[in-house]
Design a protein that fits this description.
The complex is a heterodimer of chains A (434) and B (226).
Chain A lengths: L2 H10 L7 H18 L2 H41 L2 E5 L9 H10 L3 E16 L12 E10 L1 H8 L5 E4 L9 E5 L25 E6 L2 E11 L4 H4 L1 E5 H8 L8 E6 L5 H10 L6 E5 H4 L2 H39 L1 H9 L4 H37 L2 E2 L4 E2 L5 H27 L3 H6 L2
Helix pairs in contact in A: 2-12, 3-10, 3-12, 10-13, 12-13
Chain B lengths: L3 E14 L2 E14 L3 E6 L5 H8 L7 E6 L2 E2 L5 H11 E4 L11 H11 L4 H14 L15 H14 L4 E5 L7 H16 L3 E5 L3 H4 L4 E6 L2 E5 L1
Parallel strand pairs in B: 3-8, 3-9, 6-7, 7-8
Antiparallel strand pairs in B: 1-2, 1-4, 4-5, 9-10
The chains are: A alpha+beta (434), B alpha/beta (226).
Chain lengths: 434, 226
Amino acid sequence: MSSITKMEDRIKKLRVPSDPAIVAQTGFFLAVRQIRRSNPWTNILIVSIMTLTFLNLVVVSGILVGLIEGAVEGIKSHYLGDIFISNLENKTYTEQSQNIISAARNLPGVKFVTARYIESGTIEANYKNKLRQTDMDDSVGASIAGIDPRNEEAVTQLSSLVIKGEFIEENDFDKVVVGAMLLSQYLDFDSPNFPVLDNVGIGSKIRVTIAGNTREVIVKGITKSKVDEIDRRVFFPEKQFRALIGRNDFNADEIVLRLERGVDPLAIKRTLINFGFGNYARVQTQEDAEPKFIKDMKKTFAILGNVISSIGLAVAAITIFIVIFINAITRRKFIGILKGIGIDGRAIEFSYILQSLFYAILGSLAGCVIVFLALKPYFDAFPINFPFSDGILVVSIEGVLWRIAVLIIATVMAGYIPARLVVRQNTLDAILGR
Amino acid sequence: MNDSIIKVKNLTKSFKSGESELVVLRNLNFEVPKGQFLSITGRSGSGKSTLLHQIGLLDRPNSGTIEIDGLDVSERSDRERTGFRLNELGFVFQDYALIPELNSVENVAVPLIMQGISKNRAYEMSHEALDRVGLGLKDSNLPSQLSGGEQQRVSTARAIGHKPAIIFADEPTANLDSETADKVLNTFIELHRGGLTIIMVTHEPEYAAMTQRVMKLADGNLTEET
């Protein structure tokens, strides 16, 4: 053997295998055994921490979003429907209403249609108890709506919101359903800026005045929801109401469409606009028609959710950092021994990365099981009773996958850094515990 | 000597202790021929283990050079030194230094897997090494399930499993009863007969006497060589 070949052979002996596959194989070999043979309670504790962190990431923001989503769902279900058609700004009602209704009913994907006739008016109660002419009226301004009870029921299930009495029927006469926010006994606050009627219940007689025409009607039912637009309204059967306001042309103020499941509201909106109805009415999807404060709150709560999630993520990263750091520090001697017998530091670091990955993935999986098999069905069945919405838990597969990815990245970083710190220490110092 | 596997020249190692500097090894020069069974003796604190750590590439001297198999390894990078330990050196530590989560065969197999040998082949070689030290039947036991002597034999199997050129043993019998210590030393003698170079640190003269050559360290100097 020539001296050059001999020297090459010797130089080869200095080489640590740099093949990433060998580093990965060795790291995997160490990680699997370290996880398998470590104290099971330690593993359970770490996985529990990761699960709670995952729940913190998903559930806190999910409930914050769900709080608003509950309000949106309420408005969509009971007021706006999937498509909401209303007056143009310079019109008092929606022209061509019957053509719009007829066209909408014939569109594939449209399940139900209802029309509402709306006028502003006042309602008055306790007028028979007035002792003097100068006594203040017990009256309040309200939005008075004429509806076809059957169509309205099909689109908004309004009767499900009746908490006392009964819902009106098509042929009812001088009978109304009153929103709870117009009645003092259903409000838990008393503000001079928020007038309400006192002592009005089922069977009470109230006076409804619209454009100078007054009728005495009986309260047949009381609705209570978390949608102000409904709870500040009085509902008449359509026939009597149109007669009352003299609307004989069947032009409505609000037309609401309920679509088949999976039908894109935007496509239906475009079709109606393409028919030319945009010249007579404002055609909006439920999302377009949402009140601005809802849109603002959606954004606000999404930001809030992200902030809280970020804090949760930082806590998770610090927790896993501490856990891995303590693990690496207590195993410093063995890390030193591994280096001492020639194990490449990258393989040791990789073993810690794999352990972090294991805990993050297992924690996320356990979290997914809890979220999708327990929390989501529970909150769907029993929404949280917030003052302005029935809060649900909003979780999407995409959102969950994002959070798992973020959690895994944070965990891997948090696992890698302490392992790297310990691996970089002097081998002999680590072995001797100096 | 052309067949020296280790050549140490002007090796000095000191440690800082506050303001002062404690010189542990003073300008040492020696060579170890290939295949020799060498023991380094001396009183506690004389620097035996420090010397072993320098020539075993676990630590760096303050000055001087170390050549192993014709290659100057004293100034090599940490990664290269790790590679050299993996490929050429075997270690037996006083406290066995086994990885607690790995069973006997796995402890022996780790360096082999790091060398790129397949897991199955690494296990085969590990079983062979464990058989050589008489521990073939306890290959699936964790260190906590083995006696001190058995752990030391696993440690020895790990040191020889990857067929190194030199074995460094730091007080391998210190924690063992005399009967077990004899067994461990006999294992070393067997390995030496097979052609391995072994450098053993011991403070027990009777075990040192069983080796081919004895170097005595005192006050940082090699004061005696037999």
